[in-house]
Structures are given as structure tokens and as C-alpha cells.
């Protein structure tokens, strides 16, 4: 391999990128835009849930119950409604996501030591967030229930309130959140987005850059020149990998400084892993570019592949362990899943080489294998 | 000799005929563009199926590891309450260090730590403190895990609470309880497949509505046939309308296949509202977006570039309009900005008609917004097109 020729090719490639306005814009604007757009679009701290109360009891006790919800920081109180019909209408119009209906004789039943009925109506259109809202409602109801019960028992049995609380809570569950102590959605989303974007953009850039030459016919210059197959592939790969490395740094800065995600792990480990991952994804783009003839096809194939793999089969949203047979295998066939463990480890879990070295090995072998495949597929003389 | 028609009805007929002929040409051209045609078929079929199996935050078989320092009957009882479908007992750990290592590697989502005096505390009516370490590197599922764990512990405690009250001299049957009955509307079983497939369809309808007219326009530009069209007796408005109408037809066919060929038979996604109203408003949505596609086409020189410009437009529209996540979690300035996104209004329409059976009475605000945005965008596209070519 002649290094001078590789560098010459890389330099020419670089110049071409600078001159193609749209391609250049894409190379540097697309990753940043995706990070911001997905960052806002995918993080779902479920807050400001619009809700209203239908109070059919009108007693201090029922107002007390409503206040448990009104004071929660997750809900945003929109007012009392006259009846359940009004609640139906506002839910259908999507003005409200949640309505609490406190039944008649609420206070009377509780004071008599019986069960009082409350109904919660939730708009289940968004299945994912509805589960969290259900969990909020349940937690608040439990707290309200406990305070009613302990007040009642304290009066009935003449015991001090602390003693009653002990009686009612024989088992206390102390929850400690690890890695993301404040359970902030963006902290889990931002590192995953680095995985997603570096799966999406490098193959796209790489595939387009080779196929463009095929479309314009410039590839014949390569076919007829003295440059070897390996030199051509490396020369093409270099500028693309460089751009992606710059982008990786920008993405890291956005995740840590703009979105405020903590970075607890080792920067050296993260750097090495990211470089290897970029090599893998860029090599995948190269592979696609050798298989198709038009830029349009190259773009469609690389985008569809990247989006499916990085969203569905990487553990970004659904853990890989929860995937079924075939999907589990697909997840293991792409580097995204392994890199997702790397970003989670490096950002949140503070683990590095000692625990995640197998992932690095996977990247290195993967990149090498795909590159070898490209080398075998790329022919300077078209078969006749 | 036949005189050329000059009265308004026949002129209008000729004008419309020209559009019809041109639209037919567009559909033929799409059928011959192999890559784009395959992609169009893919987004309305296989893609929907892939989306159905995807993203869910439901907690399923989450691995739980236990550090049981008590080893009593009571502690076993508590441990064995962590069962599928939500949790799965993945074994015991001997030390805190090992527990952390397993969490680090993702081999456990939750560690339960039961203190040595667990059964003793229960017997003496003192609170027993059980610790749960939960991996929240995925925030939402982490929170759900803690919520389900709390529910399991509460159920486990019930019998003990009753015993405690009896021993304190009370009557456990006579205890005030607030029964909160939760009713989920429009998707009572919280079937993720309904949400995933509808949202994916909306995403892909948006892609199709912007990409297809843009690609149709760029094809003419790339091959130089646009000049031929311009010297023919066709106005720029007719050229744009024909591209819009033909691609609208393609999108509506795709949507029909996706809803009635895939989403209903395979996933039982309901269609509560009026079918004609839905397709009418989907057509309006196509018109709203076509303007964007035509604007994109005026910015690009070839079909690869137009794809990239469309990508830059579609991503923010899809991600920030509330397709995948509720709008409430976004900052206020962004939420107000997204009123300009046609998709934001079409989401109300689509979910409203499909799941809630909403009629025009409930949806008129969204419809008016879509129409207004559509007219503005189409005018913008037409203006840019005229400036560039005519």
C-alpha cells in the first residue's frame, strides 16, 4: 500500500466534500440537528399532565384527597368539573389526560371505616406514558390511603400516630436509584443518541461518497489509474471517518454540556471505543455503496438499515434481553447493541476497559471483517 | 373546422384533463423508479410490521437478584412474590460488591437486599427495612420497576397489617379504604402495538407526502424534462397540482393497505370513527405537506440531494410533533413552535378518528390549522418554483 497515493485520494475526497454544499451541510449539520431534535423528542419526563377533578362529595375530606394530586409536581391541575359528562368531553378533545372522579358519600364511608370509591379516567392513546401515569396515580392513592387509615386508627385505638404508621407499614421498601439518581429521562436518552447518530450518519456519508463517483462516472478514473483496490478503499474511508470523529466530539459536548448528562467513566476508553465503532459503521456504509448503483438507492438502504437497527435492535428503548429469538439474533449482528452498552457504561455506570473490553474486541473484528468483505467485493474491472 | 373552445366550462374541462393526464404520467414514472417504488411499498407494509414489534417501555421479565441475609420463611415469601410477567428471579448474590457488578453488566435490573432481622422485625411489629437497588440507566422503566416493587411489597404486607391491627385491639374489617379504580380509555389494555403502528404510519405518511412530490419534481429537473413541460401549454400551477394529486393518490393507497391490510387483521387496531372522514383529512394532510416537498425540490439539484433535504425537514417534524412522545414533556417555547407543524394537527385527527371516534365537530380546529398551513406552504412552493423556472 502506497501511503502517498492514499493521502492524495483522501485529500481529493476532502476537497470534494468542501465543494458540495449540501453534502458538507449534511456532514456537520445533520448530527447536531438529530441530537437536538431527538433529545427533545425522545426524552419523556412525564410531567405537566393536564388533569381535572370531579368532586361529587364536596366535603373537606374529598378536597383533601384531590389536593394530594394537585400538589404533585407531575400533574398540572386544570380545575374542578361539574360532572362526569364534562370529563368525557374534555378527554375526547384531548384537553385533559386524566380525570379523578370522587364518588358521593366519600367522606361518610371513610369516617364509618368502609371503602370509598374513586374513579380515575386516563387517556390511553399514548400507551407508554400512560403506564407511568398509572404508576403515579397509584403511588398518590397509596399515600392518601395511608394518611386516612392512620388518622382513623389513631382516633379509634388511641395510639400515637408514629405507632400507627409502624403498624400499617410492616415492610418499608427503601428504593435507591443507581446510575441516574434523579431518574431524568434525558440522562438515559442522550448517551443512546450518540449511538443512534453514529449508526446513522457515517454509513450515509460513506455510501453516498462512493456511489456519487459511480453516478458521475468518475469511478472510471479510479479503475484506469494505478491505485490499488485497498488504497482506494482506505482513501475513501479516511475522510469519512475523520468527519465522524469530529462529529463524535461535538455530540459528546452536546450531551454533557447542553443536556447536562454526567460523564462518569474514562474518556480514554470512550474515545477508543467510539473510534472503533465509527470504523464499523463507516465500513457498513462502504459495503452498501459497493452493492448499489444510484445515490438514491444507497441513501434509502443505509437510512432504513440504520434507523431499524439503532431504534429497534440496540437496546435504546427495549432492552435486548427482552427481544424474542429472531430479533435477538438481529441485534447481535450489528455493532449498535454493543456500543449502546459502551455509552451507558461510560456515561452513567463509570465502567471501562475492565468490564467492556469484549465489546472493543467485537468492534475491531467486526470492522476488519466488513472491510475484508468490501475488499473482496470491490473490483476494478467490471465482470462481463 | 372545430373552433377552439372559449367558454368557461370547456376551458375548465381541458384544464382538468391536462392535470389528469399529467398525474397518470407521474404514477407511471414512480412505478418505473425501482428504488423509490420499493421504498414506497416498504414503508406502508414491512415497516409497519417491524414497528409493531418494537419500542415498549413495558417491564417484562426484568431480572431481579436477591441478597437474603435472613433466610426465613417470611423472606422467601417476599422474594417469591417477584414473578413474571414483570419480574424474573435471576438468583441470589452473596455480597454487595457482586450485586453492583451484576447491575453494571446489566445482568440484573434490581437487587433486593433483605436484612438479617426481617422475620424478627415482622414478629415484633417493628418496620422491616428492605432495600431495592434499581438500575435507572433507562429512566422510565427504572421508575416503573420501583412502582411495581412497591405494589408487590404492599400486597405482601396486607396480611401482616391485619395481624398488627388485631393485636393492637382494632378490627381489620372495619378500616377506611380509598378504592381507586383506574379506567384507561381508547386503549384499555395498553396495547403498545396500536400506538406503535399508528405512530409509525403517521411518520411514514409524512415521509411519503414530502418525499414523493419532491422526488417527482426533481426527476424532471435532473433529466431536463422540466423545460419541455414549461414550453407546453401547461401552467406551473398545473404541473405542481398534478404531482401533488398523483402522489396523494399513492399515499392514500399505501395508507389503505397499511390500515386494512396490516394493522387491522394483524394487530386489531380499532377504527372507531368515520372512514371517509379519515381519508378526506389524510388527503388534506397530503396537500399540506406537498408544499414542503416542492420547496425541498427547489433547493436541491439531484435526487440524492433532495433525499437529504427531505431528511432534514422530516426528522424535526416527526420527532417534535408528539408522534412518539407526549407534547407535555417538551419546553413551552418548543411546544408553541410546533403549532406550525402540520403533523401536530394531523396526529389529533388520526388518533381522534381511529381510537376515539371523533367527528368533525371535535376536530375542526386541527382541520382549520392544517388547511391554513397547507395553503401557506403551497403558495411558498409555487412562488419558489415560478422564480426558479418560469
Describe this structure in words.
The complex is a heterodimer of chains A (384) and B (390). With 384 residues, chain A is of the alpha/beta class. Chain A folds into two domains: 3-43 and 184-377, no CATH class; 49-168, abc type-2 transporter like fold (3-Layer(aba) Sandwich), CATH 3.40.1710.10. Chain A contains 15 helices and five strands. Chain A has helices at residues 3-19, 21-42, 60-70, 84-92, 106-111, 127-157, 161-168, 185-216, 219-224, 229-258, 267-291, 295-312, 325-332, 335-349, 353-377, and strands spanning 49-55, 75-81, 98-102, 115-123, 171-178. Chain A has a four-stranded mixed β-sheet, sandwiched between helices. In chain A, strand 1 (49-55), helix 3 and strand 2 form a beta-alpha-beta unit. Chain A starts with a helix and ends in a 7-residue tail after the last helix. The model of chain A has no long low-confidence stretch (mean pLDDT 89). Chain B folds into two domains: 8-54 and 190-389, no CATH class; 62-167, abc type-2 transporter like fold (3-Layer(aba) Sandwich). In chain B, strand 1 (62-68), helix 4 (73-79) and strand 2 (87-92) form a beta-alpha-beta unit. Helices cover 66% and strands 9% of the residues of chain B. Chain B has helices spanning 8-32, 34-44, 46-52, 73-79, 96-104, 118-123, 139-167, 192-223, 225-231, 236-267, 275-299, 303-320, 332-337, 342-356, 360-389; strands spanning 62-68, 87-92, 110-114, 128-135, 177-185. Chain B has a four-stranded mixed β-sheet, sandwiched between helices. Chain B starts with 7 loop residues before the first helix and ends with a helix. With 390 residues, chain B is α/β, with parallel strands linked by helices. Strand 5 of chain A pairs parallel with strand 4 (128-135) of chain B.
User: Could you tell me the mean pLDDT of chain B?
Assistant: 89
| CA gyration radius of chain A, whole angstroms | 29 Å
Largest interface: A-B, 115 and 112 residues
Calculate the terminal CA-CA distance of chain A, rounded to whole Å: 28 Å
